[in-house]
Amino acid sequence: MTTENIALFKALGAKMDFLNQRQRVISQNIANTDTPGYRPKDLKPVDFGNVLQNVTKGKSGVRLETTDNLHMPPPGDVRIDDPQKQKRTYEVAPAGNAVIMEEQLINSGQTVMDYNLMTNLYQKNTGMIYTALGRAR
Length: 137
Hints:
By secondary structure, the protein is mainly α.
């Protein structure tokens, strides 16, 4: 059985790749904690609000569909308010290094939890496919 053509597994794989790359960047930040002038880096997360707006306005290859006349139709225009973003405070060491170890450890922990979630979702959905096919796992 292959999961290459199942959209859910493609999405899970893409998210896992993103998290893997993010963990690599965080590790580089931690490794450069004592490097003078080093600024921490991070990957830009995907903005789900923009993805949803593109889908509902027909700007992407994905369309929202209804399978029953009683279902709500896809909205023509979705307004997604930007939540007020908390201003990030940065500490800069006298040598010009801006890596905050606690922040990097929190980011690393969150990345590990997200990766574990994707792994569990992948495993559960694979199990459902096996169950649907009548095969014991």
